[in-house]
Amino acid sequence: MKFETMFEQPLNRRGFLGALGSAAVLASAGLPRPARAAAARIVVVGGGFGGATAAKYIALWGGAGVSVTLVEPNARHVSCILSNLVLNDRVKLAGLGFGYDLLKQRYGIEVVADRAMAADAVAGKLDLASGIALDFDRLVIAPGIGFDPVPGLDTPEQKSLVPHAWVAGPQTQALRDQLNALRDGGTVVMSIPKAPYRCPPGPYERACVIADFLKRRKPRSKLVVLDANADIQAEPIMFHRAFATLYPGRLEYVPNAEVRRVSFEAGRKLAWVSDGIGGETSWAADVLNVIPRNTAARLAHDTGVVNLNGRWAGVDPLTYESTAVPRIHVIGDAQGTGMPKAGHIANSEAKICADAVVRMINGWPVDDAVRMQSVVANSACFSPITYDTASWLNAVFAYDPATRLMKRVDASFGEAPARSKENYEQMMKWAARLFDDTFA
Ligand SMILES: Cc1cc2nc3c(=O)[nH]c(=O)nc-3n(C[C@H](O)[C@H](O)[C@H](O)COP(=O)(O)OP(=O)(O)OC[C@H]3O[C@@H](n4cnc5c(N)ncnc54)[C@H](O)[C@@H]3O)c2cc1C
What we know:
Blueprint: H1 13-20, E1 40-45, H2 49-62, E2 66-71, E3 77-78, E4 97-98, H3 101-107, E5 110-112, E6 116-120, E7 125-128, E8 133-135, E9 138-141, E10 145-147, H4 156-161, H5 170-181, E11 187-192, H6 202-217, E12 222-227, H7 236-245, E13 251-254, E14 259-265, E15 268-274, E16 280-285, E17 287-290, E18 294-296, H8 298-302, E19 306-308, E20 312-313, E21 315-316, E22 321-322, E23 328-330, H9 343-362, H10 369-374, E24 376-384, E25 390-400, E26 405-408, E27 414-415, H11 421-439
This protein binds flavin-adenine dinucleotide.
């Protein structure tokens, strides 16, 4: 699938910003720039939804006053968004890959194919795996998530037998291939980690996609969903209704069931959960998809910015500057503002951060009354429910000067009243716009 071709007509920049949500006050909007001896060096780590958007908008709004370097080890970012649709062959994995050539050509961003290892914020140095170090005036990191270890999934072979597929790529393809190879009458078991995790509706959407696939292609098979949480974490009415009316007898939903370990016996995979009275019960699977508990990606831990429950990076939501390490900004899933961990909102956070970085290097304020009112982030998620229908969930978050936190604007919160084919079509258009705003 070629997403660029999915636009009915290109949106202008105002349209994009409105559709995708952003800091409304742009740094390039005519404030006087001080004379600088040299361009400020901004290094962005991670070329996903947060990092690629931040690099683009810092370069765009910073103009000649900045030089932007993006550090990303992979030549192409594989989007998690829409990746559940690889499992039922509605989307090819290759169609979810996005390179960085347009960011280089259009915005003059230098792209370094390397992995960031550690940062010295005082010296302004970022160490890369290749051994070189990059100098920075400000560092923005958007490395995404990491996972808690799951006992029993220790070796690379064990991990490949039980793919989480919660970072899109080879694991997504592996899970798709396992589902295709499943015998009719087999059992699929998937697990959902304790919140907060990447993409609140994502695991329930995956449950629907797999159940729908089984219904059509392996009708004697069933799916067990082991949820570490007490209930469905997003769109509960929609998903409970889908589980009960579309997939009765085929999808078994088990709340309060955290997978503690995995074992392999007689060709089957066992997921072990607490029985609530001090022991364990096991769920046997032919295909097992365990999504381990999420935390900020390793780089966030290694740079010392993780200061919330040992899992997430605390930031000032006006700038996304770390509350632990000055000069390092953290955006996307690794940060801990409490907003949902989603690609759409990572794109919004990146624009707020880009605006703040450009202001900071120019000595402009980031906390005047007008800007504080303008710090708004938008989150939208579309979820496939069947082969050709989807639902949606939308929320806007605004900066609250009283608490200095992002607060959900209750009037903005909405869910699709029902799944529909129209929603499915809108999902594809929305994703195409988000991909374009991030990578082009
Ligand atoms: C199945 C699924 C469905 C989803 N559906 C939706 C949806 O419908 N809507 C939505 O808004 N969100 C959705 N999401 C969530 C969305 O994908 C994430 O929230 C988003 O990708 C987070 O962006 P990020 O920039 O923080 O991290 P990522 O997009 O994961 O990007 C991180 C990047 O950092 C790079 N990196 C990591 N460490 C280093 C390092 N040390 N040095 C250099 N580079 C590094 C990685 O290679 C990667 O490219 C979904 C997620 C899943 C799993």
